[in-house]
Amino acid sequence: MNVQNLNSFDPFADEGDPLGGNQDVGSQQNYLHIRIQQRNGRKTLTTLQGLPKEYDPKKLLKAFKKEFACNGTLVDDEEMGQVIQLQGDQRLKIVNFLTEEGIPKNTIKLHGF
């Protein structure tokens, strides 16, 4: 039995890029990410990141705080830019608010337990 014949044929030579040239696979660029983080005990924190540039995060935070009757803050992150943090589990309320404002629902990613 001769194993040397495998050296002449490379089965992956003609494949090229396995993703088909689509470089955006797995990127988090064009999505709004809504996550929930557990604090201590029953306390939770809802974060919103990836907001498009045409929306002012300060005005949006003020509207969130008034609409949901919770406190919140705006945090600057090196990787994600400006992140809105709200007290409590406000994930579904944020999704409903943003879809009413005209953001398509397929661009919103909802994370959490």
UniProtKB/TrEMBL annotation:
CDD domains recorded: eIF1_SUI1
Keywords: Protein biosynthesis
Annotated segments matching region Disordered: 1-24
Gene3D superfamilies referenced in this protein's UniProt entry, alphabetically: SUI1-like domain
InterPro entries in alphabetical order: SUI1, SUI1_dom_sf, SUI1_euk
Pfam families: SUI1
GO molecular-function terms, A-Z: mRNA binding; translation initiation factor activity
Domain SUI1, residue spans: 32-102
Biological function: Probably involved in translation.
UniProt similarity note: Belongs to the SUI1 family.
Name listed for the protein in its UniProt record: SUI1 domain-containing protein
Provenance organism: Rhizopogon vesiculosus
Lineage: Eukaryota, Fungi, Dikarya, Basidiomycota, Agaricomycotina
